């Protein structure tokens, strides 16, 4: 596989080193953002499933899940344990698609999928394979639109999932996942991400994709107030363009 072009290189070592401090800062900023977050649009009870990133489980999304439930959504985890890619969801995603079908059947409605990092790639895969089960897809810091080597975690991806990024299987899946979705889609991304190049977390050429830029690292991105508010606004059918859209109270 060729190396990424200069515009799609992995984030710098400096950005990588800032990941943990930025994650801690994001958590520390939550109390000051509480009022703004709770002023978000009220939910309508629709089913929402949160998909964790690589190696993470539903516990990693607990804060966002609780926030969305408080707003009035039926927000749940995916219930499949840690995300080890195909080792968790099945080679053709059969285990995840079964869980999605069950949630949709119980709710008697298609499900909104919110995926963090690798979870977002799985959400887009599911929307292509079973669009009748998916109402909407929101990806967060999810590298679906480019070479996985434009990240600092592609070797960890290979280790945990057992997939090679240069294999024919992964290459075919990348093409499928990157194609425009048959359902509404939003990509939340950051140019400051220290693990994943933000340029492969959205696709300006896809005119059907709503893109929202935020200021955030990768670790703990789903706990950042600006990300939580952006998700709530998208679900509430508001369409923010970035975290700086009059969100100065939100970091």
Short synopsis of the structure:
Helices cover 36% and strands 13% of the residues.
The main pleated sheet reads as: 6 strands, parallel
Structural class: alpha/beta
Distance between the amino and carboxyl termini? 38 Å
The number of domains: 1
CATH homologous superfamily - what is it?
Answer: Alpha/Beta hydrolase fold, catalytic domain
Biggest sheet strand line-up: 2-1-3-4-5-6
Task: Please tell me about this protein's structure.
The model is unreliable at 243-249 (pLDDT under 50). The protein is globular and about 45 Å long. It contains ten helices and six strands; from the N terminus they run H-H-H-E-H-E-H-H-E-H-E-H-H-E-E-H. With 251 residues, the chain is α/β, with parallel strands linked by helices.
Question: How are the SSEs ordered, and which strands pair?
Answer:
Elements: H1 13-17, H2 19-28, H3 34-38, E1 47-51, H4 62-71, E2 74-77, H5 86-89, H6 94-107, E3 111-116, H7 118-129, E4 134-140, H8 154-161, H9 168-178, E5 185-189, E6 209-213, H10 225-235
Parallel strand pairs: 1-2, 1-3, 3-4, 4-5, 5-6
Keywords:
251 residues; alpha/beta; 6-stranded parallel beta sheet; 6 strands; 36% helix
